[in-house]
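Open question from group meeting: does this chain pack into something compact, or does most of it stay loose? Before anyone orders reagents, we agreed to write out a predicted structure and look at it together. Recording both the input and the output here so the notebook holds the full record.
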Amino acid sequence: SVPCHVMLQTNLAEASKHIPAYVAMLGPQQDGVMLTIMAHPDWFWRIAWYLLEFPFPVKVIEPDGLKGALETLAQRAQNLAQGNLV
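Structure tokens returned:
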């Protein structure tokens, strides 16, 4: 497993409403909440999808594989929006 670190621009109470304790660890920070998920690289795309559902801003800190999964998902969504086959 690889640790995935994502900064959430919200408070701990709001983050806890969207992220169950059994899914990930939440740590309050000065500028938001640090979300830490342990995941196998094959599951980065699922985490990327999960992050898109949050109603608050997020920033992926690491790993680069998770950032890449978000980029792939964004490109796929753009192609679908343009009516292209994906």
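Observations to bring back to the group:
The chain has three helices and four strands.
Helices lie at 12-18, 44-52, 64-81.
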